[in-house]
## 1
Amino acid sequence: MKGVLAVSLCLCFISGVSFADTFAVGTANEFTIDFVGISGDAGDLGSWPAGDEYTFSGVNHGDYRMGKYEITNDQWTKFKNEYGTVYGNPTYAYDEDPYWTGTNVPTNNASWYEAAQFVNWLNTSSGHQAAYKFSGTQGTGNYTLEVWQSGDTGYDASNPYRNSNAYYFLPTEDEWVKAAYWNGTNLQTYATPGDVIPVAGSDTNYDLAIGEPWDVGDGTEELNGTFDMMGNVWEWMESPYNSGDYLSGSDRGIRGGSYGLYDYFLRSSVRNIGYPRYEDYNIGFRVASVPEPATISLLALGTLALRKRKIKKTVQ
């Protein structure tokens, strides 16, 4: 039985394998977020043109997890019930409710700042460090995004937006692109197994096949276990659109196309831009995270157990 357990643990972080985290546990607002494991790389993957002024060169910080689905209206509503008023500076980044109101459609009309507050609550409500630095009073018009500075605990000079001790975060463009398009050898054009154009209205939601966002997960599983990284709604990147432009109000990248655009916008070679204050009914987001520390430890233990079994079998 111990051998069987070790095998299951050792498989738990193969890229594309799903697992879920639960929030607001035991309350009426309890909800889960599903993640898929994305395998990290030890070194540079090369240089892959992946949109205007952007080159994908890999994700070198190790394994991470990508949200399997876009964050839904149901998850957003339950977050607000627990968190309270989502508000801040500038106030016009917080004045729109979702336009598309279905329970399980991706939440929309969410600015980057609103998405950042959602992510911060995921962290703080589960005992982790907030990813993004806000000053002022939460729930008021002076609650303002700042950038982590040298001297702040968790400051990372390579990404001043994200605290390096955070557990949940918005994906950088590198993290998002890798989860969508990297097949282990090269960067694909589409996030489909086999790199084929997805069927509109069946595999994914684009080209006005549905005419509005559909429920997350209604399409076909993509290359690395995600859904709707192509189509449905555009998704916020954590990263600034212009490399190195880490100011609180700098333009952010958005990726993935939407339900109303044709297949060109689903490609890895296409990126778009949005002001972080911008709320639009075609823009939502998904969440990424580091691997569970316990999972990493158990993975190592499982590997060790398997090695011991192999040695014992050889000796016998």
Note: Residues 2-315 form a domain with the paralog of FGE (formylglycine-generating enzyme) fold (CATH 3.90.1580.10).
## 2
Amino acid sequence: MKHKFSYEWTLKDANFTKDKGTVFSCFACGGGSTMGYKLAGFDVLGHNDIDKKMIEVYKVNHKPKYSFLESITTFAKRKDLPKELYNLDILDGSPPCSSFSMAGSREKGWGKEKKFREGQSKQVLDTLFFDFINLAKELQPKVVVAENVAGLMMGAAKEYVKKIYKEFKEAGYKLKIKPYLLDASTMGVPQRRKRVFFIALRKDLSNQFMESVDMFQTAPKLDLKFNEQNINYSQIREDSKPIKTLNETLLKLWTKCLPGNNFGTVHKKGHYFGETKMHLNKVCPTIIANQSGSNLYDNIYPRILTDSEYCKVGTYPLDYIFLSNKPKYLIGMSVPPVMTAQIATEIYSQWLNKL
């Protein structure tokens, strides 16, 4: 079955038409969403990030027209931004989401200042989403797309969702009653990765679609149902023998572990549950942005996935320049480009192309 976008591609050979509209990306990291918009035909004008290393790797790969190294909190307050940013089709952002992740401390960490790994100034991560909405209020793009972890829809975090809706409304935007919970594996991505997307249309533009809005909707309909065939590990696997031998502990766990399970299932204390052995006939699990652990392992040879295999799992281009960043870490931090490309394509065809 042919997929709309290829999970195995290169920047060198990509055809970025830049004819669908303009985008600016916040919390851009290495540019996962940026590449998705480009694949969908959009012109990404620039980016904002607080991490100097991410700014550097983004510049090398994307050569943005505008690049801003600063916190979204101060960036949203600026009044000297380029005029082009006040005429955007899409403002995109992925506010740091560790506070809401089911893998993190969740409620215990809410409202607390946290420091990023590169040593930037401390920030209260769960308020950055609202700084992002403040930027949307200032720039007034046609559409705002905000991505976050699935944990945002669970437990007490739902109260944050209510506030997010309130802030979007006050900024002049309309959204559907519930955000979109999407699984990358149904969208042509070789990875089980669930993410929540808030997709808001500016109120004055949404009024043009009012004939399609019924009593159960607060915004024009945007159909985001994707039924692309699963891409299993066997399709992205490379017949590569180990370059680096696993240490004795990991080798024993890898040998005992059944394909498709994590090493915690065979460790006597349940440790190493972040290390997962692939199953040839199953989709790879979510790539975790961890510098040292939480690796994915081949099921035939005792090795961690190669960098190019990680690129394919995350739909990153095979010729992406990672500089000093570990590919698995950066890819795990990013929205898979193909995931964004699928969403951006539907936003254009169902909304922007009709305005």
Note: Residues 101-121 have pLDDT under 50 and may be disordered.
## 3
Amino acid sequence: MIIKNVQLYPIDSPMIELGYLVEQEGKIVKIGPMSQLPDKDFGQVYDLPNHCVLPGLVDCHCHVGMFGDAIGFENDDANECSDPCTPHLQALDAVNPFDRCFQEARENGVTTILTGPGSANPIAGQALTMKTMGSRTEDMVLKTPSAMKFAFGENPKRVYHERDETPVTRMAVAAIMRENLSKAKEYAEKTRRAGTDHEELPDFDAKCEALIPVLEGKLPAHFHAHRAVDILAAMRIAGEFNLKYAIIHGTEAHLVSTHLAEANAAVIAGPLINDRSKPELAEASIENPGILAAQGVKLALCTDHPETPIQYLLLTAAMAVRGGMSREDALRAVTLTPAVIAGVGSQVGSLTEGKDADLVIFAGDPFDVTQRPKLVFINGKAVVS
């Protein structure tokens, strides 16, 4: 397949005003200006003057397939509220690939998502990264697990206050994290010594086993944190245990942007299209992403679906531009940066030779919120046409 006479947004290189892209066997095999178009038959031809091509959009924090659309508790599989520490839970066992929101994601150009547990528990479980096309989760997955979900602030406090159980303070939330990370560290050390010093293996502990990759830096911690004080607490605990991490939401991240930039911390900002429905969101503004980007913070934008429905990811980017973010930074924040944060930057997120042919084609400006994509491809197959 070849798409030609289009404006190309590679993301990882300068825009090509009039160019072409070649797909073969689900991969991008060639991209360049029309002046360098090879004289060769590439099969199906899409000749699309006045159209633009973007890489498939990536949302690296949402709960698609975890909260049932138009259904209540019966199909809410994102929060296991019976235990404040559940790192052994896997989104793979909960995602419903038949949720209609996957279709709405595809129709609006969102081709890859990181979806997983909610924020009821201080340690909630394992998220995964997947494509939005398919009928069996295992076939849609790009990486599992791709993050361990942690949560600070109001959500765990509210959930366990209602149950009259720990934690009900920020002190207890942090203590639960420290306690279980320390247990996992000790468990890993005992397991290591058992293989060298003839000591007995410790009893199997599923929670510790799940946290060991986090301690080893193989699995990033994704910290739910809105308020600046919670962002700093997340950074503190990450520093104590030398964790690789990202801050999710970061509603007040602009207040500590210099600290985030100095730590080279990633922020997954959003949702931007919602009301100030709780105290933690009192300072919410669409200017936050632009301030962070200007400070050099590694920034992605998210919908936090269903807080903002997944189909409005590009609208979220447009709102960030309205709030002062550059168009280039906003497009990167819904393509390549979230792909890197989700651990799949080598596969998706930019129009790069060798990457998956996940493409979104618009008849005009992609920031024109009155239009939907004209064509969407996932792995080179048209899923919207």
Note: The longest helix spans residues 170-194.
